[in-house]
Design a protein that fits this description.
With 334 residues, this protein is α/β, with parallel strands linked by helices. Helix content is 38%, strand content 18%. It has two domains: 163 residues, Rossmann fold, CATH 3.40.50; 144 residues, Rossmann fold, CATH 3.40.50.2300. Strands 7-6-8-9-10-11-12 form a seven-stranded mixed sheet, with helices on both faces. A five-stranded parallel sheet has the order 2-1-3-4-5, with helices on both faces. β3, α5 and β4 form a beta-alpha-beta unit. It is elongated. The N terminus is likely disordered.
Protein backbone atom coordinates (compact mmCIF):
# COMPACT_ATOMS: atom_id res chain seq x y z
CA UNK A 1 0.00 0.00 0.00
CA UNK A 2 1.29 3.46 -0.85
CA UNK A 3 2.20 6.03 1.74
CA UNK A 4 -0.20 8.46 0.10
CA UNK A 5 -3.12 6.10 0.55
CA UNK A 6 -2.28 5.46 4.14
CA UNK A 7 -2.03 9.14 4.85
CA UNK A 8 -5.50 9.72 3.48
CA UNK A 9 -7.10 8.42 6.67
CA UNK A 10 -4.67 9.85 9.17
CA UNK A 11 -5.69 12.76 11.34
CA UNK A 12 -2.83 15.19 11.85
CA UNK A 13 -2.47 17.75 14.57
CA UNK A 14 -0.15 20.73 14.41
CA UNK A 15 1.90 22.76 16.81
CA UNK A 16 2.84 19.63 18.74
CA UNK A 17 6.54 19.41 17.97
CA UNK A 18 7.48 20.74 21.38
CA UNK A 19 5.30 18.17 23.14
CA UNK A 20 6.84 15.26 21.26
CA UNK A 21 10.36 16.59 21.69
CA UNK A 22 9.98 16.95 25.44
CA UNK A 23 8.54 13.47 25.82
CA UNK A 24 10.68 11.49 23.40
CA UNK A 25 12.79 8.78 25.04
CA UNK A 26 15.06 6.73 22.74
CA UNK A 27 14.68 3.05 23.47
CA UNK A 28 18.32 2.43 22.68
CA UNK A 29 19.43 4.58 25.59
CA UNK A 30 17.02 3.71 28.37
CA UNK A 31 16.75 6.39 31.00
CA UNK A 32 17.54 5.26 34.52
CA UNK A 33 15.41 6.14 37.56
CA UNK A 34 16.84 8.23 40.38
CA UNK A 35 19.44 6.07 42.19
CA UNK A 36 18.74 4.71 45.65
CA UNK A 37 15.04 5.58 45.67
CA UNK A 38 11.92 3.45 45.40
CA UNK A 39 9.23 5.24 43.43
CA UNK A 40 5.72 4.90 44.81
CA UNK A 41 2.98 5.29 42.21
CA UNK A 42 -0.74 5.51 42.89
CA UNK A 43 -2.74 3.96 40.05
CA UNK A 44 -6.38 5.02 39.90
CA UNK A 45 -8.71 3.11 37.57
CA UNK A 46 -12.43 3.10 36.94
CA UNK A 47 -12.20 -0.56 35.92
CA UNK A 48 -12.83 -3.63 38.06
CA UNK A 49 -9.65 -5.63 37.35
CA UNK A 50 -6.27 -5.34 35.62
CA UNK A 51 -6.24 -5.44 31.83
CA UNK A 52 -3.75 -5.37 28.96
CA UNK A 53 -3.78 -1.57 29.24
CA UNK A 54 -2.45 -1.60 32.79
CA UNK A 55 0.21 -4.08 31.70
CA UNK A 56 1.19 -1.66 28.92
CA UNK A 57 1.85 1.02 31.55
CA UNK A 58 3.89 -1.40 33.64
CA UNK A 59 5.88 -2.37 30.57
CA UNK A 60 6.54 1.29 29.90
CA UNK A 61 7.93 1.65 33.42
CA UNK A 62 10.11 -1.43 32.96
CA UNK A 63 11.46 -0.02 29.70
CA UNK A 64 12.60 3.01 31.69
CA UNK A 65 14.37 0.94 34.34
CA UNK A 66 11.66 0.73 37.01
CA UNK A 67 11.19 -2.77 38.40
CA UNK A 68 8.36 -3.56 40.81
CA UNK A 69 9.67 -4.93 44.06
CA UNK A 70 13.09 -3.38 43.47
CA UNK A 71 12.78 0.36 42.84
CA UNK A 72 9.06 0.69 42.12
CA UNK A 73 5.85 0.16 44.10
CA UNK A 74 2.46 0.60 42.43
CA UNK A 75 -0.61 1.06 44.62
CA UNK A 76 -3.54 -0.06 42.47
CA UNK A 77 -7.07 1.13 43.24
CA UNK A 78 -10.04 -0.19 41.23
CA UNK A 79 -13.48 1.48 41.27
CA UNK A 80 -15.35 -1.51 39.80
CA UNK A 81 -17.10 0.83 37.31
CA UNK A 82 -18.74 2.73 40.19
CA UNK A 83 -18.14 6.45 39.71
CA UNK A 84 -19.22 7.04 43.28
CA UNK A 85 -16.16 5.16 44.51
CA UNK A 86 -13.58 7.03 42.44
CA UNK A 87 -13.34 10.12 44.63
CA UNK A 88 -12.72 8.13 47.79
CA UNK A 89 -10.05 6.03 46.10
CA UNK A 90 -8.29 9.13 44.81
CA UNK A 91 -8.25 10.60 48.31
CA UNK A 92 -6.94 7.32 49.68
CA UNK A 93 -3.98 7.45 47.30
CA UNK A 94 -3.22 11.00 48.42
CA UNK A 95 -3.15 9.84 52.06
CA UNK A 96 -0.67 7.12 51.10
CA UNK A 97 1.76 9.90 50.16
CA UNK A 98 2.48 8.51 46.71
CA UNK A 99 4.97 10.31 44.45
CA UNK A 100 2.64 10.41 41.43
CA UNK A 101 -0.97 9.46 40.73
CA UNK A 102 -1.65 7.83 37.36
CA UNK A 103 -5.30 8.37 36.48
CA UNK A 104 -6.79 6.03 33.87
CA UNK A 105 -10.31 5.52 32.59
CA UNK A 106 -11.16 8.90 31.14
CA UNK A 107 -12.09 12.37 32.21
CA UNK A 108 -14.28 11.48 35.21
CA UNK A 109 -11.41 9.67 36.92
CA UNK A 110 -8.98 12.49 36.17
CA UNK A 111 -11.36 15.11 37.55
CA UNK A 112 -11.73 13.08 40.76
CA UNK A 113 -7.94 12.96 41.14
CA UNK A 114 -7.76 16.71 40.57
CA UNK A 115 -10.33 17.34 43.30
CA UNK A 116 -8.40 15.10 45.68
CA UNK A 117 -5.10 17.01 45.53
CA UNK A 118 -3.49 20.17 44.22
CA UNK A 119 0.03 19.08 45.16
CA UNK A 120 0.59 15.43 44.23
CA UNK A 121 1.51 15.21 40.51
CA UNK A 122 -1.19 13.58 38.38
CA UNK A 123 -0.63 11.91 35.01
CA UNK A 124 -3.84 11.18 33.11
CA UNK A 125 -5.27 9.87 29.88
CA UNK A 126 -8.55 11.45 28.82
CA UNK A 127 -10.41 13.13 26.00
CA UNK A 128 -10.79 16.91 25.71
CA UNK A 129 -8.85 17.87 28.89
CA UNK A 130 -9.03 21.58 28.09
CA UNK A 131 -12.72 21.69 27.18
CA UNK A 132 -13.67 19.88 30.38
CA UNK A 133 -11.59 22.20 32.56
CA UNK A 134 -9.07 19.57 33.58
CA UNK A 135 -6.07 21.65 32.45
CA UNK A 136 -5.54 25.24 31.36
CA UNK A 137 -4.00 24.53 27.96
CA UNK A 138 -2.25 21.81 25.99
CA UNK A 139 1.11 23.57 25.84
CA UNK A 140 1.22 24.56 29.51
CA UNK A 141 -1.27 22.51 31.51
CA UNK A 142 -0.71 24.43 34.74
CA UNK A 143 -1.34 23.07 38.21
CA UNK A 144 -0.33 19.51 39.08
CA UNK A 145 -1.68 17.63 36.04
CA UNK A 146 -0.38 16.51 32.67
CA UNK A 147 -0.93 13.56 30.37
CA UNK A 148 -2.48 12.63 27.04
CA UNK A 149 -5.48 13.89 25.08
CA UNK A 150 -6.86 10.96 23.09
CA UNK A 151 -8.59 13.22 20.55
CA UNK A 152 -11.34 10.59 20.60
CA UNK A 153 -14.16 13.12 20.61
CA UNK A 154 -12.97 14.97 17.52
CA UNK A 155 -13.04 11.95 15.21
CA UNK A 156 -16.46 10.49 16.01
CA UNK A 157 -17.75 12.12 12.84
CA UNK A 158 -15.02 10.43 10.80
CA UNK A 159 -16.07 7.06 12.18
CA UNK A 160 -19.62 7.67 11.02
CA UNK A 161 -18.34 8.59 7.54
CA UNK A 162 -16.37 5.34 7.38
CA UNK A 163 -19.43 3.35 8.39
CA UNK A 164 -21.42 4.95 5.58
CA UNK A 165 -18.61 4.17 3.13
CA UNK A 166 -18.65 0.49 4.07
CA UNK A 167 -22.44 0.16 4.20
CA UNK A 168 -23.82 2.81 1.80
CA UNK A 169 -27.41 1.62 2.17
CA UNK A 170 -27.72 2.32 5.90
CA UNK A 171 -30.29 4.89 6.95
CA UNK A 172 -30.62 4.53 10.72
CA UNK A 173 -27.59 4.23 13.01
CA UNK A 174 -27.76 3.21 16.66
CA UNK A 175 -25.34 5.20 18.82
CA UNK A 176 -24.35 3.42 22.02
CA UNK A 177 -23.24 5.83 24.77
CA UNK A 178 -22.42 5.98 28.45
CA UNK A 179 -24.23 9.06 29.81
CA UNK A 180 -22.00 9.05 32.90
CA UNK A 181 -19.03 10.00 30.71
CA UNK A 182 -18.60 13.82 30.76
CA UNK A 183 -17.48 13.76 27.11
CA UNK A 184 -20.59 12.02 25.79
CA UNK A 185 -22.65 15.18 25.23
CA UNK A 186 -19.99 16.84 23.09
CA UNK A 187 -19.35 13.63 21.17
CA UNK A 188 -23.04 13.36 20.34
CA UNK A 189 -23.12 16.91 18.96
CA UNK A 190 -20.36 16.12 16.48
CA UNK A 191 -22.08 12.89 15.43
CA UNK A 192 -25.42 14.66 14.95
CA UNK A 193 -23.81 17.20 12.61
CA UNK A 194 -22.14 14.42 10.61
CA UNK A 195 -25.36 12.41 10.48
CA UNK A 196 -27.19 15.40 9.00
CA UNK A 197 -24.60 15.76 6.26
CA UNK A 198 -24.78 12.04 5.49
CA UNK A 199 -28.60 11.98 5.64
CA UNK A 200 -28.60 9.44 8.44
CA UNK A 201 -31.04 9.13 11.33
CA UNK A 202 -29.59 8.44 14.76
CA UNK A 203 -30.98 6.37 17.59
CA UNK A 204 -29.12 7.29 20.78
CA UNK A 205 -29.07 4.57 23.41
CA UNK A 206 -27.59 4.73 26.90
CA UNK A 207 -25.71 2.14 28.94
CA UNK A 208 -24.58 3.59 32.25
CA UNK A 209 -23.25 0.23 33.42
CA UNK A 210 -22.55 -3.20 31.87
CA UNK A 211 -25.99 -4.48 32.86
CA UNK A 212 -27.69 -1.99 30.55
CA UNK A 213 -25.87 -2.98 27.34
CA UNK A 214 -28.17 -5.84 26.35
CA UNK A 215 -31.25 -3.66 26.90
CA UNK A 216 -29.76 -1.13 24.49
CA UNK A 217 -29.40 -3.79 21.80
CA UNK A 218 -32.99 -4.90 22.29
CA UNK A 219 -34.06 -1.30 21.69
CA UNK A 220 -31.91 -1.11 18.55
CA UNK A 221 -33.67 -4.13 17.12
CA UNK A 222 -37.14 -2.75 17.88
CA UNK A 223 -36.31 0.51 16.12
CA UNK A 224 -34.78 -1.33 13.14
CA UNK A 225 -31.31 0.19 13.36
CA UNK A 226 -29.14 -0.87 10.42
CA UNK A 227 -25.69 -0.09 11.88
CA UNK A 228 -23.92 0.73 15.13
CA UNK A 229 -21.58 3.46 16.33
CA UNK A 230 -20.10 3.13 19.84
CA UNK A 231 -18.96 6.42 21.35
CA UNK A 232 -15.63 6.38 23.22
CA UNK A 233 -15.93 5.27 26.84
CA UNK A 234 -13.72 3.15 29.16
CA UNK A 235 -16.60 0.98 30.36
CA UNK A 236 -17.77 0.25 26.84
CA UNK A 237 -14.20 -0.60 25.81
CA UNK A 238 -13.95 -3.06 28.68
CA UNK A 239 -17.24 -4.63 27.56
CA UNK A 240 -16.12 -4.96 23.93
CA UNK A 241 -16.56 -8.73 23.72
CA UNK A 242 -20.15 -8.49 24.90
CA UNK A 243 -20.84 -5.56 22.56
CA UNK A 244 -19.40 -7.14 19.41
CA UNK A 245 -21.13 -10.40 20.28
CA UNK A 246 -24.50 -8.67 20.50
CA UNK A 247 -23.75 -6.75 17.30
CA UNK A 248 -23.11 -10.06 15.56
CA UNK A 249 -26.27 -11.59 17.02
CA UNK A 250 -28.37 -8.70 15.72
CA UNK A 251 -26.35 -8.50 12.47
CA UNK A 252 -25.34 -4.89 13.00
CA UNK A 253 -22.17 -3.63 11.27
CA UNK A 254 -20.36 -1.47 13.79
CA UNK A 255 -17.56 1.06 13.98
CA UNK A 256 -15.60 1.58 17.17
CA UNK A 257 -12.81 3.66 18.64
CA UNK A 258 -9.98 1.20 19.29
CA UNK A 259 -8.57 -1.81 17.46
CA UNK A 260 -9.44 -4.01 20.42
CA UNK A 261 -13.03 -4.08 19.11
CA UNK A 262 -12.33 -5.59 15.65
CA UNK A 263 -9.77 -7.87 17.26
CA UNK A 264 -12.65 -9.16 19.40
CA UNK A 265 -14.86 -9.60 16.33
CA UNK A 266 -16.23 -6.13 15.59
CA UNK A 267 -16.34 -4.88 12.01
CA UNK A 268 -13.87 -1.98 12.15
CA UNK A 269 -12.29 0.71 14.26
CA UNK A 270 -10.71 4.09 13.74
CA UNK A 271 -8.65 5.67 16.49
CA UNK A 272 -5.32 5.93 18.19
CA UNK A 273 -3.54 2.95 19.75
CA UNK A 274 -4.75 2.98 23.35
CA UNK A 275 -2.06 0.45 24.30
CA UNK A 276 0.65 2.84 23.12
CA UNK A 277 -1.02 5.68 25.02
CA UNK A 278 -0.87 3.74 28.28
CA UNK A 279 2.75 2.83 27.65
CA UNK A 280 3.55 6.50 27.05
CA UNK A 281 2.15 7.46 30.45
CA UNK A 282 5.29 5.97 31.96
CA UNK A 283 7.35 8.63 30.18
CA UNK A 284 5.55 11.36 32.08
CA UNK A 285 5.93 9.54 35.38
CA UNK A 286 9.66 9.12 34.79
CA UNK A 287 10.17 12.82 34.06
CA UNK A 288 8.21 13.87 37.14
CA UNK A 289 10.17 11.48 39.37
CA UNK A 290 13.32 13.16 38.05
CA UNK A 291 12.11 16.60 39.01
CA UNK A 292 9.96 17.88 36.14
CA UNK A 293 6.81 19.81 37.05
CA UNK A 294 3.53 18.61 35.50
CA UNK A 295 2.59 22.23 34.75
CA UNK A 296 5.54 22.45 32.36
CA UNK A 297 5.01 19.15 30.53
CA UNK A 298 2.82 19.69 27.44
CA UNK A 299 -0.19 17.47 26.89
CA UNK A 300 0.64 14.87 24.26
CA UNK A 301 -1.84 14.30 21.45
CA UNK A 302 -1.75 11.55 18.83
CA UNK A 303 -0.65 12.66 15.38
CA UNK A 304 -2.05 9.66 13.50
CA UNK A 305 -4.95 7.29 13.81
CA UNK A 306 -5.23 3.72 12.62
CA UNK A 307 -7.99 2.06 10.63
CA UNK A 308 -8.53 -1.64 11.40
CA UNK A 309 -10.98 -3.79 9.43
CA UNK A 310 -12.12 -7.32 10.23
CA UNK A 311 -12.83 -9.02 6.88
CA UNK A 312 -14.04 -12.19 8.59
CA UNK A 313 -16.79 -10.21 10.31
CA UNK A 314 -17.61 -8.40 7.06
CA UNK A 315 -18.10 -11.75 5.32
CA UNK A 316 -20.33 -13.00 8.12
CA UNK A 317 -22.47 -9.87 7.75
CA UNK A 318 -22.62 -10.30 3.97
CA UNK A 319 -20.62 -7.13 3.36
CA UNK A 320 -17.96 -6.45 0.77
CA UNK A 321 -15.35 -3.99 1.98
CA UNK A 322 -14.37 -1.66 -0.88
CA UNK A 323 -10.86 -2.38 -2.11
CA UNK A 324 -10.10 1.33 -1.92
CA UNK A 325 -10.77 1.20 1.81
CA UNK A 326 -8.80 -1.98 2.36
CA UNK A 327 -5.65 -0.48 0.89
CA UNK A 328 -6.03 2.54 3.16
CA UNK A 329 -6.34 0.37 6.26
CA UNK A 330 -3.45 0.04 8.70
CA UNK A 331 -4.42 -3.50 9.59
CA UNK A 332 -6.79 -6.01 7.99
CA UNK A 333 -7.96 -9.06 9.94
CA UNK A 334 -8.58 -11.91 7.50
Amino acid sequence: MSAANRRALRVRTFGLTIALAVLAVPLAAKAQPPPGKTARIGYLSIRSAPSHLDEAFRQGMRDLGYIEGRNLTIEFRWADWKLGRVQGLAEELVRLNVDVIVSTGGIATALAAKRATSTVPIVFTAGDPVGTGLVESLGRPGGNLTGTDLLNIEINAKRLELLKEVVPQISRVAVLTNPANPNTARGLKDVEVAAGALKLKLQVLEARDPGKIEDAFVAMTKERASALLVLPDPMLLAQRERIVGLAAKHRLPGVYEFREFPEAGGLMSYGTSITDVYRRLATYVDKILKGAKPADLPIERPTTFELVINLKTAKTLGLTIPQSLQVRADHVIR
